[in-house]
Amino acid sequence: MTDFLVQTLDFAAVCTGGWAAYYLRFGFDTQVVDIPSGERLLVVGVAFFAALFFGKMYRMWPGGSLAAMVGRVSLGWLITWTALIVLMALTKSAGMFSRIWVVSWLFLTLVSLWVARAMAFFAMAHMRRSGYHHKSVVLYGDSTMLDTVRGRIGKSNWSGFDIVGTVVPGDDQDIAALDTRLRPDEIWIALSMGDQSNLESVLQALQQSVANIRLLPDLRMYQILNHGMSVRVGIPMVDISASPMFGSRKVTKAALDYSVAAVALLLLSPVMLCIALAVKLSSKGPVLFHQKRNGWNGEEITVYKFRSMAMHAEEVGAVTQAKRVDPRVTRVGRFIRKTSLDELPQFFNVLQGRMSVVGPRPHALAHNNEYVQQIPRYALRHKVKPGITGWAQICGYRGETDTIDKMEGRVKHDLFYLENWSIWMDIKIIVMTPLATLENKNVF
Questions:
Q1: Which residue in 15, 33, 324, 438 has the fewest CB atoms around it within 10 Å?
Q2: Which residue from 245, 227, 225 is spatially nearest to 385, judged by alpha carbons?
Q3: pLDDT tens track for 193-215
Q4: Which of 309, 306, 330 is nearest to 320 (CA)?
Q5: φ, ψ for residue 258 (rounded to 5)?
Q6: Measured between alpha carbons, how far is residue 309 from residues 59, 278, 306, 335, 389 in Å?
Q7: What is the mean pLDDT of residues 35-42?
């Protein structure tokens, strides 16, 4: 029933966006009956397809995050709208419709869908607070995971779960008898790694239970990089350390990377030309500096920067970081390093597929080889493409890392990014980067 209501809201939101865009384009004195049949058919058809397509991308599950729901429906609409544009191009029917109307439809429908999702979320939250569609839960176990579950449910009274009983292994309570007496909707089993031998006996005792039985694995001994499950050769597996970039996530991030890089190069090309001339005229040597660094999966890539130092020779296998007072840095170089303008050529790296706009900053090979031996889980940074900017950089970990503590702080923030990645987080980092660049005092 909930899915049907959500799909109905999707349908209404897409139709509302389409017709609102039409009125804004052609005037409010136009009556609905005067809208050409082609436009009406397109609006209804796309709305119906969208409701079917991404209505399933979102479930009003108990405890679901509003941000996640809005993100899913936004992605669904963007995919639907893009498919519509491609279909128009393939059928050569784009000329039948106003381009302003079609583009307005995109943005107005996004707003309509956000409003619809918020209404659905708060309506369901209110109903659950009022006791509607609650599920009773019995907890079994003695690990601290149960404390986490109780805390989460206590803070989220809109989640729809009520803990009606708890059984600790070794006490006088019988889990089967409690199940028969309480008839819970769910039984959640949380056993520590040392108590896994009890699992078989518990499941044996509950073999006649009609409750949904779920196992909460005790993963406290691991620091999980990607919170998720995957299926390999038909076997479900918990992802302990896996790249967050897969499937639609990988496609979405690539679309953001290529579009941002293309627009940036187009808008910043005059600035880049001026910097190139300034570098060339201020000191001898090439305009661009090439350096080997590690990319996705640790593969070596060539990263571009505007040259900011005078030509000098380094010892084989050594890379010396720039210091606050460094005679190697030119006057032009000091300015472009301070403002991060020396990184602009890396947008070409993005178009080449070697880097992302947002991700852990790539380090020189010599530094990588040094830190991978000193910092646990350092190499996990390579489970995504390196970025021009990143979460660590906007949090102040930009520039010289002259102590192991500074590098550990940067790695900690990089892993936080991997564990919590979303397309909205990338957009947030992109928006915050200019301000973070101006405020940072650690770049020389």
A1: 33
A2: 245
A3: 666 667 888 888 888 888 888 88
A4: 309
A5: -65, -40
A6: 55, 13, 9, 11, 21
A7: 56
The CATH label, of 3.40.50.280, 3.30.310.50, 3.40.1190.10, 3.90.700.10, for the domain at 135-221 is 3.40.50.280
pLDDT digits (tens, 9 = 90+) for 58-101: 444 444 556 767 777 777 778 777 877 777 777 777 677 777 87
Residue 105 burial (C-beta neighbours within 10 Å; 0-12, 13-18, 19+): buried
Q: Is 293 helix (H, G, I), strand (E, B) or coil?
A: strand
Query: Which amino acid does the sequence have at 105?
Result: W
Residue keyed to tokens 């779920």:
214
Residue 423 has pLDDT above 50, yes or no: yes
Token pair for 412: 């900690």
Q: Which of 427, 393, 369, 417 is nearest to 243 (CA)?
A: 417
Q: Residue type for 397, please?
A: Y
- Sign of the alpha-carbon dihedral angle for 303, 256, 352, 301: positive
Give the residue extent of every domain in the chain. Answer: 2-129, 135-221, 247-439
Residue 9 pLDDT exceeds 80: no
Distance (Å, whole) CA 275 – CA 343: 11
Q: For 327-358, how does the pLDDT look when each residue is reduced to its tens digit (9 = 90+)?
A: 677 888 888 888 888 899 999 999 999 999 99
- For residue 389 the two structure tokens come to 């900017």
Indicate whether this model's pTM tops 0.70. no
Kindly report each contact of residues 420-424 with a partner whose C-beta sits within 8 Å and lies 24 or more positions away, as own/partner: 421/244, 421/245, 421/249, 421/384, 422/71, 423/71, 423/75, 423/252, 423/253, 423/256, 424/67, 424/71
